[in-house]
Design brief:
Shape: elongated
Radius of gyration: 24 Å
Largest sheet: 6 strands, parallel
Strand order of the largest sheet: 5-2-1-6-7-8
Order of helices and strands: EHEEEHEHEHHEHHEHHEEHHHHEHHEE
Protein name: CoA transferase
GO molecular function, one term: transferase activity
Strand content: 15-25%
CATH class of the largest domain: Alpha Beta
Keywords: Transferase
Pfam families: CoA_transf_3
Length: 361
């Protein structure tokens, strides 16, 4: 039994945002019926594979059921209506207008099932100038301003390492859906959620884009404490061509570090505005390059400083902390990243991801 046992979800989404949202529901006991085309969710074909399935697909679709429906056929539409009539949540990730053309827009669906919580996930939302503009994660990051500060020292933006707007949309859609389900207990009716990747990501800039939010100029990474302008929030190369980070800007960390290095005179530099700490950054670069990454890990072990080595994913997943927290698990010959949402009263175990049309019935 999970927190969402008894909740039925009809999920038409593919790739990342929608499946991320609904796997979190499936992990908590919701019955998630994944409606797919004959070709299946494209992520089924994304390498690498383990135990006969895509690692991506398995981790975002475990615990769900799969039914193939042709929504352009009368038979497919009739079967989808049967699913909808008994559902609590309906999720779709098509471009705006597609569901209306198919005859499954919110107005039509809610007329048949007034209790339905209907969630549409798209790049830019159901209305506005960009509503029909094709985009995946990086394009929404670019248009929202985020890519401009995902840059190197020379100011050139680079491809982001995380699909932040995809993930932000999945989390936002889940939160909104749960709010609507709670509200339904009082109102007695469902609701419609227009969840945009762009909208979901935008609030994530409040700690870095304050000047622009207030109507002023855009932030420049080299002058931002969180983006490269501060010595104690910075990436440094080590002698073995690996990297470490200082990740805490509090002055107590600067005091602890610089006293230990015999340079208390530079503590005042750590108090300067971001962008004015060049001498401190240059000194720290010259220091970190003198030892290997692992030597610095040992050196920092007894120092109260926000420090970390930069690990690759293999190193990160093999860290003892991951095992102690049960965050990377093997089940039936396949590996899973455990859900971040877990409850003390429940023991989580991964379920299998469905083969295409496995639950056609």
């Amino acid at each position: 039994m999970g927190k969402l046992t008894g909740i039925k979800v009809v999920d038409l989404s593919v790739f990342l945002p929608g499946p991320m949202m609904t796997v979190m529901m499936a992990d908590q006991g919701a019955e998630v019926i994944k409606v797919e085309t004959a070709a299946g969710d494209p992520s089924r074909e994304q390498a690498p594979f383990e135990a006969g399935q895509s690692v991506w697909f398995r981790n975002l679709n475990r615990g769900k059921k799969s039914i193939v429906l042709d929504l352009k056929s009368e038979e497919g539409k009739a079967r989808l209506w049967t699913l909808i009539e008994g559902a609590d949540v309906f999720v779709e990730g098509f471009r705006p207008g597609v569901m209306q053309r198919l005859g499954f827009d919110y107005a039509t669906v809610s007329a048949r099932n007034p209790l339905i919580v209907y969630c549409s996930i798209s790049a830019f939302g159901q209305n506005g100038a960009l509503a029909h503009h094709p985009a995946h994660d990086m394009a929404t990051q670019a248009l929202a301003g985020f890519l401009s500060v995902n840059d190197g020292p020379d100011g050139t933006p680079v491809v982001p390492g995380t699909a932040s707007s995809d993930m932000a949309a999945g989390l936002t859609a889940l939160s909104a859906t749960l709010m609507a389900l709670i509200g339904r207990e009082t109102s007695g009716k469902g609701d419609y959620i227009d969840c945009a990747m762009f909208d979901s990501l935008l609030p994530w800039c409040v700690h870095t884009a304050g000047s622009a939010i207030a109507g002023g100029s855009a932030p420049v990474s080299a002058k931002q404490r969180s983006l490269g302008g501060a010595g104690l929030y910075q990436v440094y190369q080590t002698s073995d061509r690996k990297y470490v980070v200082l990740g805490g800007r509090e002055i107590k960390f600067a005091e602890n570090l610089l006293n230990a290095l015999g340079r208390p005179d530079l503590i005042e530099h750590a108090k300067r505005e971001a962008g004015e700490q060049g001498e401190l950054i240059a000194y720290l670069r010259s220091v970190f390059i003198t030892r290997s990454r692992d030597e610095w890990v040992s050196w920092f072990a007894d120092k109260d400083v926000a420090f970390a080595p930069v690990l690759d994913f293999r190193e990160a997943l093999d860290e003892p902390h991951i095992a102690e927290r049960g965050l990377w698990v093997e089940h039936d010959g396949a590996h899973h990243i455990a859900p971040a949402i877990r409850f003390a009263s429940e023991q989580w175990q991964p379920s299998k991801a469905p083969e295409l049309n496995a639950d056609a019935g």
